[in-house]
Amino acid sequence: xxxxxxxxxxxxxxxxxxxxxxxxxxxxxxxxxxxxxxxxxxxxxxxxxxxxxxxxxxxxxxxxxxxxxxxxxxxxxxxxxxxxxxxxxxxxxxxxxxxxxxxxxxxxxxxxxxxxxxxxxxxxxxxxxxxxxxxxxxxxxxxxxxxxxxxxxxxxxxxxxxxxxxxxxxxxxxxxxxxxxxxxxxxxxxxxxxxxxxxxxxxxxxxxxxxxxxxxxxxxxxxxxxxxxxxxxxxxxxxxxxxxxxxxxxxxxxxxxxxxxxxxxxxxxxxxxxxxxxxxxxxxxxxxxxxxxxxx
Length: 296
Prior knowledge:
Layout: E1 4-5, H1 8-28, E2 34-40, H2 44-60, E3 63-69, H3 75-87, E4 93-96, H4 106-112, H5 124-132, H6 140-151, E5 160-164, H7 171-179, E6 188-192, H8 199-203, E7 208-211, E8 229-232, E9 236-239, E10 247-250, H9 255-258, E11 264-265, H10 272-289
Parallel strand pairs: 1-11, 2-3, 2-4, 5-6, 5-7, 7-8, 8-11
Antiparallel strand pairs: 9-10
């Protein structure tokens, strides 16, 4: 029996409907949520992501602006731009699109964003508040994965969740999020990574498997138990001569094999991706509502 295909677009649309109501309330108070995106260089993938975020803002009636800079911008100029956005009362959320050119210290840039405008959830204060179980901006992809699990009827509560990947953007914050003592979490979490031996030992004993290792189709059918729910965070380009573009997008899981075996699975594309953008919109609305931090 084939697995249930979890529709990320459908879940994202549910969240957009809920956000539309919150935005209407804000606009009646003369508050228009605004997201400012900083884009450095001409990386094609970054340009696509920024355009998708802009389209989501337009759909919801969130004001947005994209500040574009050449790849040779100096670090101080970029810091000055962020400082201007920090002081701009009309700007509620700041997002610096990663990666940045090698001569710019990404950590320094992130730390310069006011925590109450850090809608990516990457500032050390937001990361620390997440660790402590305090209100904060949760990184968008981990938050989206949690929403997928809850809204598709596969709550992680009491389940063994195996997270494959330990990045500071997805794997680590996701493990912290799902292990917290709160509704929609309360999972027993195992983190696997590049130095983990016998990854299949852990995956075969998992209820929920979240693949975020950045390697195309690395998780194969034989590594998966039949009762598993699989959330595939990976987005990888692989060559495909039959495609008009010369490539196709695949996840970190061998979808064609896994779909014949597991209980449920997210596709790539159309799974986690739409939720990442939806949670960015949610964080921007939260910033406008000012529910998480009190501005000075």
